[in-house]
Amino acid sequence: MIHLSHPKFQILIIASILTGLFLAGCSEPANEESVEWALALHGGAGAISQEMPDSVKNQYYDGLEQAVRTGEIVLREGGSALDAVEQVVRNLENNPLFNAGKGAVFTKEGRHELDAAIMDGSTMQAGALTGLTTVKNPVSLARVVMQESDHIFFSGQGAEQFADETNVERVENDHFFTQNRYDQWQRSNNQTSSAAPENPRTLSSHNSYKFGTVGAVAIDTDGHLAAATSTGGMTNKQFGRVGDVPIIGSGTFANHVAAVSATGWGEKIMQQVSANTIANLVEFGGYSLEEAVDFLLEERLQPDEAGFIAVDSDGNIVMKMNTPGMYRGSVNSLGETEIKIWTEE
Ligand code: ASP
Questions:
Q1: pTM
Q2: Ligand 1 close to Cβ of residue 213 (< 6 A)
Q3: CB 24: neighbour CB atoms within 10 A?
Q4: Which of 75, 83, 87, 232 has the highest CB neighbour count under 10 A?
Q5: Is residue 243 located within the same domain as residue 330?
Q6: In what order do the strands lie in the sheet with 306-312?
Q7: Residues 5 and 130 reside in one and the same domain
Q8: Total of domains in the chain
């Protein structure tokens, strides 16, 4: 018969108490609050001039703040990450300051062709569109594609026909017109007719109105991740050009590990299948979310090419770029809010 008073057992009991005390000392302090939900958004990255007038700066800060609050309300009330990213992107699409929805850039032909995508990380379902010309809020049509069609990605005429069968709001193509984008297109026409610079994103870098693809990523109180991105693409793009935004895994991606939305030079972002690579580095490479984003920005992409917003399953947020600026904002359940444009501010 074994007696607990036996010296061997006493040593074992003392050892396990000490181990327990040691482990308790190593773990997180009990009162440290964990993040229940989190949201980040971007309004485009590029050579955003610090010289822009204060009145314009304030319009951007206000626009970003409103978009952050839109998502915060959804998540704080227990809404889904999917609803939050759709609502945030709709808000930014309706803001003429940003290159998505109203305020989209001009194509070579002087029109507006819009791309958008949305992805639900909890189901891996996605919806994407390219070359839309009459849908007021492309992100919402992307969600309908995701939820109500048998497919993921529609383009051009097919995308418009799909829209005809839904209730999404339609507009004339000139709804997307803004004078700033028109002037930028004119300047860009003049520049490309002389000598085309290598990186189209540094074209007329004094022009603060040039960038503005929008995107949002979120995690909700159920731990579900989602991402959405919407854009007019790049100024002067050729008819039918498709950027990274609607390519699932390039400009937009979400799974159970991370949600990512990109902005920048679409062709470069696509070559690296960037958004999916970031999630894979976290899932399979042992990278933290920040290390994964840094790897893409520093090791895979060149300076001035891109920016990413990302959130992981622990609610960590990363918003980083290798351009001088990126319109961006974030908020989480701990009330931590950030709204910034440039690297240093
Ligand atoms: N990535 C977008 C595109 O290439 C443009 C941007 O983010 O500004 O279509």
A1: 0.87
A2: yes
A3: 9
A4: 232
A5: yes
A6: 252-254, 258-264, 306-312, 317-321
A7: no
A8: 2
